[in-house]
C-alpha cells in the first residue's frame, strides 16, 4: 500500500468546480488544480501573505509550500496561454469548516471553531456522525470523527 | 448555551422556516434552563444584505448555535466569522418543542 499523502490544512475551499475559457470551445485536456494549489494561490496572491506566513497557515514546510505554489502558478499560466479549462480537484485536505452529517438524527452541522474537534452531534448528542463534504472525494471510508479525516 | 431556531410563528408548535434569514421569529432556547423565548426577526422583509444583518443580530443575542432548514453559502460565511455553529435540519415536521427535547436530552 502506498504511504498516504500528508494532510494539509485549507481554510476556504473553492466555491466553484473550475473555469472555462471564453470565446473558444476548449477541447484540450483541462489543467487540474488541487485544493492545496488553490489555497497556495489564495494565500499568496489574494490574501497577500508572504510565503513563510502562507506555509505556516497551511502547516507545511517552507520548501513544500514553494513547490505547491510553483506548481499552481505553472498550471494557471498554462490554462491562460494554451486556453485550457481549469478544474479544481481534491488532494488530501482537511477543511477547517466543513459539514458533518449525524447518522442518528439526520442533521447536518459544521464546526466553525475548528480548533476543537467535534465529538457529538450538536442537536441530539449522538457520536455517530460522518463528514459529508469529503465523501467520495478523498476518504475511502466513512469517518466518524474529525480526526479520522486523515484517512 | 443559547440556540436560535428560525421558525414561522411564535409558539412551541412552530416549524422551521424554509428561508433562514426571512423567518418571522427566532426561538431562542436556553439549553440549561430549557426556557424558550421568541424574538421577532426585524429583518424579515429587508430587501438585501439580510445575511449580514441577521447574523449580527443573532450574535448580539449571545447565541452559539443556530438551527435552520438550510443555509446558503453567503449566510454561512457570515456566521463563520462569529464562530456560530450551523445545524441544518431538512425536516419540515419538527417543532420547536421537538428541538428543545433533542437539545436537552443529552
Ligand atoms: Zn444528531
What does it look like?
- The complex is a heterodimer of chains A (151) and B (106).
- Chain A folds into 2 domains: 8-92, no CATH class; 95-135, Single Sheet (Rubrerythrin, domain 2), CATH 2.20.28.
- Chain A is built from 3 helices and 8 strands; from the N terminus they run βββαααβββββ.
- Chain A has helices spanning 35-46, 51-58, 62-81; strands spanning 8-10, 18-19, 31-34, 86-89, 93-95, 99-102, 108-110, 129-131.
- In chain A, the strands form 3 sheets. A 3-stranded mixed sheet of chain A has the order 2-4-3.
- With 106 residues, chain B is an alpha/beta fold.
- Chain B has a single domain (2-104), classed as Nucleotidyltransferase, domain 5.
- In chain B, 27% of the residues lie in helices and 24% in strands.
- Chain B has helices at 50-60, 73-81, 96-104, and strands spanning 2-7, 25-30, 36-40, 65-68, 85-88.
- In chain B, strands 3-2-1-4-5 form a 5-stranded mixed sheet, covered by helices on one side.
- In chain B, a hairpin with a 5-residue loop joins strand 2 and strand 3.
- The mean pLDDT of chain B is 92.
- The chains are: A alpha/beta (151), B alpha/beta (106).
- The interface between A and B is medium-sized, with 17 and 21 residues.
- The structure holds zinc ion (ZN).
- The site of zinc ion has 8 residues of chain A, from loops.
